[in-house]
């Protein structure tokens, strides 16, 4: 043995003795010799490390699910990881998961530096994968290439051509590769690595063959690895007979996290009318229910889900992927918020307990195929990627809830209505004015109902523009004015702002009924009627729907802002297999006002009605939280996307520069 080798061995031995002393004091089991060899290899490849002394834990992070608190945690972890790892960027899966997290962090925080770093990485590698006939791990970096392509308004074909060629090279193979009899996605981790690439390629190219391949291969993996008793996936077929020290089956937290997060990465781009969509939704529901049962008292999960006593340290990478998937499910209305928000909240607080003062995210297991032992300081790129993905969905959840008024779906005039105001007065603002289909009650999804104004926020870069939802349930075009809400909103509007108006659902009632007195006269003319308002207890002159809408437009213009009128979202009312439109009533009258006043018009009624028609009655049913009017979060998301596609179809889109990556990915509405 050379002198240099002897010194390396002695140094390693001294490090292990130091670690052993620290770990013994804390009563954590040490990695085995084989596991330590894997840790050393990961360190040599710059995937991460596990120092004996990582320094103090962070004391400046809050577990509160507020946009500011989540952004602070996101930036602290992302900034540390970016500075530490950028010199060693590679295309292996350990890095590609981190890249997905960086992309999400840019969308979430509005800070382009993480996405810019990804663009530089992609250019360095000429937008190519690692190997010919790439397996799922090799394909995984393609998710970032495709997201950059979909985010880029120019959509340069060169950004996706190498990945497309490599996918085409394996699409006809029924096995992993020639001479290898295993199915392409023979291990459960593959369900995160590859499917997200294939579904994004279909979105980028419009070619459904990539989704067909995805659906076929996922089904084959499911048939091979799904455990119907535990509602979890075996890591691979060899683990179906292996057992933990306590005799129970081996289910690895990160492996299950890969699958759940992979489901989300598919559902984000899978067409709403795809016949396989229900399969993925049900998988997410089954796995979430089982995983929630296995959550430990600190909010996190152990490496071995069914033998937590053998793995006393929490495992953050699996926990982060669980949080990402469950939070997305709640945000989309796929999972019940009342059931999973407590699980999510506890887990997020638990993860923050493992962030160090410098931004290191600890308690991440090293690479491997199964549960293992590691040190509290252990930090690896893919675990940080999972954390950033989770934070992005938590931020979306927090934005849907921030600034919500303490009101019911249809609050009485005497309710304490506190509407949100712009968070940053130096930025332009997009104001939303409307009824409960824009903001329902508290805006928190209560009663499984949500207006489109809440998810609408996520389509914009909130570092460039405020999005302020001042809609109130139960209001008509008339009562939003007569109760003083419009006057208070108008006072906030400044030059350069944009105001979207959507009314009509509540305008058809009686002019002077004793319960609400909120109706307007049909049409857009100058007709009026004098009444004694039984609610306001005063004399009132009531006008047409069009007259009130014109008041909004003219007064918004006078403030130097841009008004845009939306037709009302369609109700779940079917006739001859089609959704009943509002073109002959409030939808058509809204268009007439927009034409007369020469302002932008978004035919939200028609845009969403077409989507409902395509889905059919059974497909639309889950999008509603009541018999016919109020949407679930999933339905609200669909309507929000319809508004964005309508904005992009305007001759002059006043908010085009302010879209987030998610907003940029939406296509303009093409009309008939």
From TrEMBL:
UniProt keyword terms in alphabetical order: Hydrolase, Signal
InterPro entries: 6-hairpin_glycosidase_sf, 6hp_glycosidase-like_sf, Glyco_hydro_88, PolySaccharide_Degr_Enz, RhgT-like, SGNH_hydro, SGNH_hydro_sf
Annotated SGNH hydrolase-type esterase domain residues: 433-636
Organism phylogeny: Bacteria, Pseudomonadati, Acidobacteriota, Terriglobia, Terriglobales
One GO term (biological process): carbohydrate metabolic process
Protein name: Glycosyl hydrolase family 88
Gene Ontology molecular function, alphabetical: hydrolase activity, acting on ester bonds
Pfam (any one): Lipase_GDSL_2
UniProt xrefs under PANTHER family: UNSATURATED RHAMNOGALACTURONAN HYDROLASE (EUROFUNG)
UniProt feature, compositional bias: Basic and acidic residues: 39-48
Residues in the signal sequence: 1-24
Location of region: Disordered: 39-63
